[in-house]
Structures are given as C-alpha cells and as structure tokens.
Amino acid sequence: MVSKAAWLIKEGRVVKISDLMYYVMGRKNRHIVRVVGDALSCTCPGFRGRGICSHVIAVSTIMKLGSKSEFLDEVLRARVEKELKFLRRKP
C-alpha cells in the first residue's frame, strides 16, 4: 500500500479539488478521497473492506507536505494535462 501511495504521488495522480476532497487516479480506476473531520475516507472497495488504502495514504502524505514541495506542483500539472488528453479521447 505504501509503495503504491508513493507511486500515486510521484506520478502526480492526486489532485486537490478542495480542502475537503481529492481526486485520485489509479492505474485503472479513479477515486474520491474525502476529508471528514480528522479522518479520510475513500470510494474504493479496499477502503470499504479495510478502512485504509493507498489513496488515503497518498492524500494524507500530500496534506502533510502542504505547499512545501514545488516538485508536486510540476508533476501534478503534467498529470492533469495527460488526464485531460485521456478524457478528450473517450467517446
């Protein structure tokens, strides 16, 4: 789980929608991670079954990093561009 969370961050696959919501793009699926009080919840089946998942770990890490990393901004920008191209190709 931790290595997948690191991959999600490194590849810029975690997008902050608001202070309370993040969009996480896995290899096959997309999930929403919500901030609920002091806890995080995810729409993926793994979270429903275990109460933890790589998506939540990735978002938690990014929340702790805050705006300290310019690297994340560049990676995220590149990932968003790829995602938009992907979405445009879908019928």
Describe this structure in words.
The chain has 91 residues and is of the alpha+beta class. The chain starts with a helix and ends with a helix. The protein is built from four helices and four strands. Helix content is 52%, strand content 23%. It has a four-stranded antiparallel β-sheet. Helix 1 (2-10) crosses helix 3. The radius of gyration is 13 Å and the shape is globular. Strand 1 (14-18) and strand 2 form a beta hairpin. The protein has one domain.
- Helix content range of the residues, please? 40-55%
Number of strands: 4
Distance between the termini: 33 Å
Instruction: Report strand order across the widest sheet.
Output: 1-2-3-4
Low-confidence parts: none
Q: Could you tell me the strand content as a percent range?
A: 15-25%
> How is the main sheet built?
4 strands, antiparallel
Note the overall shape. globular
Which sequence of SSEs, written as H and E, runs from N to C?
A: HEEEEHHH
Class inferred from helices and paired strands:
alpha+beta
Output mean pLDDT: 87
Number of domains: 1
Radius of gyration from CA coordinates: 13 Å
- Per DSSP, the total helix count is 4
Secondary structure layout plus pairing:
Elements: H1 2-10, E1 14-18, E2 21-25, E3 30-36, E4 39-42, H2 45-50, H3 54-65, H4 70-89
Antiparallel strand pairs: 1-2, 2-3, 3-4
Helix pairs in contact: 1-3
Task: Summarize the model shown.
The chain contains 4 helices and 4 strands; from the N terminus they run αββββααα. It is an alpha+beta fold.
Notable characteristics:
91 residues; alpha+beta; 4-stranded antiparallel β-sheet; 4 helices
